[in-house]
Write a structure and sequence with these properties.
Layout: H1 3-19, E1 33-38, E2 41-47, H2 56-63, E3 74-79, H3 91-97, E4 102-107, H4 117-124, E5 128-131, H5 135-141, H6 143-151, E6 155-162, E7 167-169, H7 186-198, E8 201-205, H8 206-212, E9 227-231, H9 242-245, E10 251-254, H10 256-259, H11 267-280, E11 285-288, H12 292-300, E12 306-311, E13 320-321, E14 331-333, E15 337-340
Parallel strand pairs: 3-4, 4-5, 6-11, 6-12, 8-9, 8-11, 9-10
Antiparallel strand pairs: 1-2, 1-3, 7-13, 12-15, 14-15
Helix pairs in contact: 3-4
Length: 345
C-alpha cells in the first residue's frame, strides 16, 4: 500500500474515532467526524454533536486557526458531505467556499437527498475527491443509519440473559418481587443501561410488561431514556404499568386497533406494521429486551441485526426456554456473546 493511501486510511480512522463521541445523541442523523490535514499534520477536527447542530465538517473548519491553510489542505470525513438544505446549510457548499482542494470520504451517504450528489457537487467544483477509504469501517460505524435508509426499518438489536442450561427465566410460580432471580451481574445490568442510552428506542412484548412491570429507563447511567415500545396485539396491558405512568420517557403502545389491523392478522403482519410505524416516525434503532416469545419472533422473521447474549454460570433446571438463534453468523465475545446477522431482512 502506498504511503498516501496508508495516511488517508489513518485519518479516516481518526474521523471514526471522533464520530463515536456522539454515540446515541445524533438520531436521526448519522455519526460523523472530520479532520483537516496540512502537510501531513492535523490542523483542525470536529464531529457532529446533535441533530440540528453544526455538522462535522463545519466544526472541523471552524477549529482551524489559520484559515489560509485550508487552500492547501485535505479534508477527511467518514460520510459523504451533505448537498441539501436541512436544519443546516450544505457542507459541500462550505468546503467549496473555503477552496479546500482535496476531500477524502469514508463512504457514500445512502440518504436519498444526498446519495452521491455531495460527491458530484465537489467534483464539479474542481475538487479532487477520493471515496470509499475505510469503507467497511465507515459503514459499520453507521450501521443503524444505513439499515434505516436501505431496509426502511429500524436497526434491531436483541438482548437477553440466559442460564447455563438455556433458560431465560425460572418458572413463573417461583418468580416474585421477594425472590427475584437475576441471570446477569450488576456490572452487566449497568452495561445494559448504557446500551439503552445509545439506542433510540427499547421494545418489549406485553407479557414482559405484565410479568415484570419494567421501567425501561437508563437510571443507572447518565443519559437520555430511550422511547419505550410495547407490542400488545390484544390490548392486555395494565394502564397503571410503569411505562405508562412514569413520565421520564415517552411510550408507544401498539395494539391491533391502534395499527388499524384486523383481528385475524398474523403475528408477522403485526410486527411488520409496528416496524413501519417506527420507520415513519424516524426511529432508526431499537433494543429488544422482550421475553423469549417476542425475541424468537424477531429471530424467526429474520428481522434482527445484532444479538447480545449474557450466559450465567447458574443453572435453572427448568423454566422459560431461551430463544434459539443460529450460531453460523459472525460471532465474538467481549463479556457476552455477540452475534451479527449479515443476511437480515
Amino acid at each position: 500500500m502506498k504511503t498516501e493511501e496508508t495516511s488517508d486510511f489513518r485519518f479516516i480512522q481518526r474521523c471514526i474515532q471522533l464520530a463515536k463521541n456522539a454515540l446515541g445523541n445524533t438520531y436521526p442523523n448519522p455519526l460523523v467526524g472530520s479532520v483537516i490535514v496540512h502537510d501531513g499534520k492535523i490542523i483542525g477536527e470536529g464531529w457532529h454533536h446533535k441533530a440540528g447542530e453544526a455538522h462535522a465538517e463545519v466544526n472541523a473548519i471552524r477549529s482551524v486557526k489559520n484559515k489560509t491553510l485550508l487552500k492547501e489542505s485535505t479534508l477527511y470525513v467518514n460520510l459523504e458531505p451533505c448537498s441539501h438544505f436541512g436544519k443546516t446549510p450544505p457542507c459541500s457548499d462550505l468546503i467549496i467556499a473555503n477552496k479546500i482542494p482535496r476531500v477524502v470520504i469514508g463512504c457514500q451517504d445512502p440518504f436519498e437527498k444526498v446519495n452521491g450528489s455531495g460527491i458530484q457537487k465537489l467534483k464539479e467544483a474542481g475538487i479532487e475527491v477520493l471515496v470509499n477509504v475505510g469503507e467497511v469501517e465507515s459503514q459499520e460505524l453507521n450501521s443503524r443509519f444505513f439499515t434505516y435508509h436501505q431496509k426502511k426499518r429500524p436497526y434491531i438489536l436483541l438482548k437477553w440473559a440466559q442460564s447455563q442450561d438455556g433458560y431465560i427465566a425460572p418458572e413463573k410460580e417461583i418468580r416474585t418481587e421477594k425472590k427475584a432471580v437475576f441471570l446477569s451481574s450488576k456490572e452487566d445490568q449497568i452495561r445494559v443501561h448504557q446500551w439503552r442510552k445509545e439506542e433510540e428506542a427499547i421494545l418489549i412484548g406485553v407479557q414482559t410488561l405484565i410479568d415484570d412491570n419494567p421501567s425501561l429507563t437508563t437510571r443507572w447511567v447518565d443519559g437520555k431514556n430511550p422511547i419505550r415500545i410495547v407490542l400488545d396485539p390484544n390490548n392486555r396491558a395494565k394502564k397503571n404499568a410503569n411505562v405508562f405512568t412514569d413520565n421520564n420517557a415517552s411510550t408507544l403502545h401498539f395494539t391491533r386497533k391502534s395499527l388499524g389491523l384486523k383481528k385475524e392478522c398474523s403475528a408477522s403482519d403485526f410486527l411488520n406494521a409496528s416496524l413501519n410505524v417506527l420507520f415513519e416516525q424516524k426511529i432508526s434503532s431499537v433494543l429488544v429486551e422482550g421475553g423469549s416469545a417476542t425475541l424468537q419472533h424477531f429471530i424467526d422473521q429474520n428481522i434482527w441485526d445484532e444479538a447480545r447474549i449474557f450466559v450465567a454460570e447458574k443453572k435453572l433446571v427448568r423454566g422459560v426456554k431461551a430463544p434459539e438463534i443460529s450460531k453460523q453468523i459472525v460471532q465474538y465475545s467481549i463479556g457476552y456473546t455477540h452475534l451479527k446477522n449479515k443476511a437480515s431482512k
